[in-house]
Design a protein that fits this description.
Strand 1 (about 35) and strand 2 (about 40-45) form a beta hairpin. The protein folds into two domains: about 25-55 and about 290-385, Aspartate Aminotransferase, domain 1 (Alpha-Beta Complex), CATH 3.90.1150; about 55-290, 3-Layer(aba) Sandwich (Aspartate Aminotransferase, domain 2), CATH 3.40.640.10. The protein has 15 helices and 13 strands. It has helices at about 5-15, 55-70, 75-80, 85-95, 110-120, 135-145, 155-165, 190-200, 220-225, 250-260, 265, 275-290, 290-310, 330-340, 370-385, and strands at about 35, 40-45, 100-105, 125-130, 145-150, 170-175, 200-205, 230-235, 245-250, 320-325, 345, 350, 360-365. The strands form three sheets. The chain has a seven-stranded mixed sheet with strand order 3-9-8-7-6-4-5, with helices on both faces. It has a three-stranded mixed sheet with strand order 1-2-11. The protein binds pyridoxal-5'-phosphate.
Length: about 400
């Protein structure tokens, strides 16, 4: 019997328990309307917050970079893969973020597995929000340090855990800036206060805050006015920046250290020239104008207000992430399927991505949607929501 035959049974289990993830194929760019199965559908599910993924200036920058630099960086950055494009991108990001320095990685996920194990030792201790992203969790596990999970955004529990673990010389608090399933923001001001009181280093993964929160999309730390009280900012270039990649921003020593000891920096090929050039263009566009960020917020406020008025439970999001809370996974999957038939692409999320009984359809509007697009989505949610008895 072939050795991996057990996977057949594991896959069967996934199908039978309704946990099998059907992955849709887009037959074109990730625009406000996407083609799937030959038909255009309203895209309410992607993280292309500012509509930059297929923005003409981004596309041009990427094409120009291919003409000049080719399609591949050719090596890991520490050997021969660092191009002047990577350095320009890092300098632009550091300036945008108002930090001394920055290093880019191949993705946001990789950034977390790059920075966290590079600085945290086995003999240190980590305090981690229970709803942190998988890449933060994996990064923490790679350190082999003890991980103390605190209840989501529960500062009392965090303080108690820190008090109980005073024996550790180096202590780290690690949290998402924006929690991706609910759209709520970490209580970072209290985290920074506790970090000052108990001498902890703070690492924030701001994947959903970059390009969304703060002045012109400078992220959650800027939004809350915390500046250097947050020691390490991790971001992604794959969501609002419309491209692919991730980064770590902080002081010069931190970035220099990561370039010496960050394993994905040392052992994995650099961002491709077209990706680096696209990301650089995104930073330039954000530096030049706040318009896209404010359109994103206008659109999300409009969508949220309409859904709320219709009687949908839209959770407690502080950001454009809009969870339509539906309770049972069968309702969320059923509605998502029906929406798809009505040409709306909006994914259902159930257990184990979110807790049991808290299934939802997570709507992501973007700056690229027109009011007509949003009205189309709202209209379809209304009729299907009524059909499923979710609203009156
Ligand atoms: C909170 C958070 N961190 C990190 C990532 C990973 O980012 P990337 O897609 O750039 O790897 C994600 C992506 O879903 C995320 O939501």
């Amino acid at each position: 019997m072939p050795k991996l035959d057990f996977l057949k049974n594991d896959l069967k289990d996934l199908h039978e328990s309704g946990l099998y993830n059907v992955i849709r194929t887009l037959e074109g760019a990730n625009d406000p309307w996407v083609k799937i199965n030959g038909e255009k559908r309203l895209n309410l599910t992607c993280n292309n917050y500012l509509g930059l993924a297929n923005h003409p200036e981004m596309v041009k920058a990427a094409k120009d970079a291919i003409d000049r630099y080719g399609v591949g960086a050719g090596a890991v950055r520490s050997i021969a893969g660092t191009m002047d494009l990577h350095i320009r991108l890092e300098e632009a990001l550091a300036k945008f973020k108002g930090r001394e320095a920055c290093v880019v990685f191949q993705s946001g996920f990789v950034s977390n597995s790059g920075v966290i194990p590079a600085i945290i030792r086995k003999s240190d201790v980590i305090f981690s929000d229970e709803l942190n992203h998988a890449s933060v969790i994996d990064g923490c596990r790679l350190t082999k340090a003890p991980i103390m999970r605190y209840k989501h955004n529960n500062m009392e529990e965090l303080e108690n855990l820190i008090k109980e673990n005073q024996q550790y010389e180096r202590k780290y608090i690690v949290t998402d800036g924006v929690f991706s399933m609910d759209g709520d923001i970490a209580d970072l001001k209290s985290v920074a206060d506790l970090a000052d009181k108990y001498d902890c280093v703070v690492i924030v993964d701001d994947a959903h805050g970059e390009g969304v929160l703060g002045k012109g999309g400078r992220g959650v730390v800027n939004h809350l006015g915390l500046g250097e009280r947050i020691d390490v900012e991790v971001g992604t270039l794959s969501k609002a920046f419309g491209c692919a990649g991730g980064f770590v921003a902080g002081n010069k020593d931190l970035i220099e250290w990561i370039k010496q000891r960050g394993r994905p920096f040392l052992f994995s090929n650099a961002l491709s020239p077209s990706e680096a050039a696209g990301c650089l263009k995104a930073v330039e566009l954000l530096e030049k104008s706040e318009e896209l960020v404010s359109t994103l917020w206008d659109n999300s406020k409009y969508f949220k207000a309409s859904m709320n008025e219709l009687g949908f439970d839209i959770g407690h999001s502080d950001t454009p992430i809009t969870p339509i809370m539906l309770g049972e996974a069968s309702t969320a999957h059923g509605m998502s399927k029906k929406l798809f038939e009505e040409k709306v692409f909006a994914m259902a999320l159930g257990y184990p991505t979110v807790p049991k009984g808290k299934a939802r359809i997570r709507v992501m509007v973007s700056a690229g949607h027109s009011k007509d697009d949003l009205n189309y989505g709202i209209e379809k949610f209304t009729s299907i929501g009524r059909e499923f008895g979710v609203i009156k």
